[in-house]
Design a protein that fits this description.
By secondary structure, this protein is of the alpha+beta class. The chain is about 30% helix and about 25% strand. It is built from 11 helices and 14 strands. It has an 8-stranded mixed β-sheet with strand order 1-4-5-6-7-8-9-10, covered by helices on one side. The chain has a 6-stranded antiparallel β-sheet with strand order 11-2-3-12-13-14. A hairpin with a 4-residue loop joins strand 8 and strand 9.
Length: about 375
């Protein structure tokens, strides 16, 4: 089914390998373009980078054993993507490790792989009592170098067994956020901790989480996983239960949640702050977005609706390092951080509203199962 969202909507179905193979075949050109060009993005953001592409692939490959043990099915899907696109499974895992590479640093890599001007994502989680019509709403802006918007895709997956899924992703990547037909939704923020180690990369955790039918099982999938790095998982279900779980490789903390909560790219929990990597944030943009988003949500408890959240994703406070991020004037797409996509999931109505690129410039479009 072709839906004009600005982001390609791809329907996939079958067992794990078949879903991956279809993904790889349909998006073959984009996946190969992504693989062969992404090293330029890493180098543009870090001129000191010493490792060659083959070394980076090998470095990310040390997570393979953890992935296989955690979810053999999703490893099969990764293998299917590889076979469908004509790349190796190690190369596909490298693509799926683009966020973990920020804190999984091999000796000689030359420092951080992401821009010193990092902006970052803003996530929003709204319980029924905070919305105007009793709905569960969850969403985010997804902010990366503008380059990544070329690979935007929405995967609508009908697995051989288990819930259907709508997953926002990049070509060749298992998924970045999404929702399932059982009413569970997930959005994420990147956070960086000092305990990063070989483990399960976040797209694998994210996709396994969406195979769950109960919110407690979904939460456990994230917080009890042998994680490779830090991610904040904001998740909710259509029964009015929600969590904000800050994680590192070895630790997690559930933040207090009342009504509605926004999160950005710094740790908030007291037990997590001590693990945050020094120098990960080079400016105060994350703290501004955190305050602006939470102030808006708290000021409108009981009145929050889809339109309010869409407008919040367009907010330009602290421009260009704002919720709706635009990079700095004159920056190349390889280094300019932009909102490459935004989405809001209505868990009560089982639909997802998605926007390609900056929400201040483009419209949201509705996608259903």
């Amino acid at each position: 089914m072709n839906i004009d969202t600005g982001i390609r909507v791809i329907d996939l179905s079958g067992d794990s390998y078949e879903v991956g193979r279809q993904h790889g075949e349909i998006l073959k050109d984009d996946i190969r373009d992504f693989y062969y060009s992404v090293e330029e993005v890493h180098r543009a953001n870090n001129p000191r980078l010493k490792a060659e592409s083959s070394e980076l692939v090998s470095f990310c490959g040390r997570n393979i054993g953890f992935i296989k043990a955690y979810s053999p099915e999703l490893f099969e899907e990764l293998q299917g993507i590889a076979d469908g696109s004509g790349l190796s499974v190690e190369q596909i895992i490298y693509l799926n490790s683009f966020l973990e590479m920020e804190d999984l640093r091999a000796p000689g890599l030359g420092g951080r792989l992401l821009s010193g001007g990092l902006w970052g994502c803003t996530t929003l989680n709204v319980l029924p009592e905070a919305s105007v019509d009793g709905k569960n709403l969850i969403g985010q802006t997804f902010d990366m170098e503008k380059y990544y918007s070329r690979f935007n895709v929405l995967l609508r997956i009908t697995p051989k067994s288990g819930p259907k899924m709508m997953v926002y992703s990049f070509a060749g990547v298992l998924g970045l956020n999404g929702m399932n037909s059982k009413g569970i939704g997930l959005v994420i923020n990147k956070v960086v901790a000092k305990d990063a180690a070989p483990g399960v990369i976040f797209p694998v955790i994210m996709r396994r989480l969406l195979t769950q039918e109960r919110i407690g099982d979904a939460l456990g999938t994230a917080i009890f996983a042998p994680r490779a790095s830090g991610i904040t998982y904001q998740l909710a279900d259509n029964n009015g239960v929600a969590f904000c779980a800050e994680t590192s490789a070895s630790r997690y903390e559930l933040l207090p949640f009342s009504g509605a909560l926004a999160h950005t790219n710094h740790y908030v929990g007291s037990s997590m702050k001590e693990l945050e990597t020094p120098g990960w944030l080079t400016h105060g943009g994350s703290f501004v977005r955190y305050q602006v988003a939470n102030r808006c949500l708290q000021a409108n408890l009981g009145k929050i609706d889809l339109e309010l959240l869409m407008n919040l994703t367009r907010d330009h406070t602290n421009y260009p390092r704002s919720i709706c991020a635009h990079g700095s004037k004159g920056e190349d797409e390889k280094v300019a951080f932009h909102t490459v996509a935004a989405m809001i999931m209505d868990l009560s109505e089982s639909c997802l509203w998605v926007c390609h690129g900056n929400p201040c410039e483009n419209n949201y479009k509705k996608v259903t199962f």
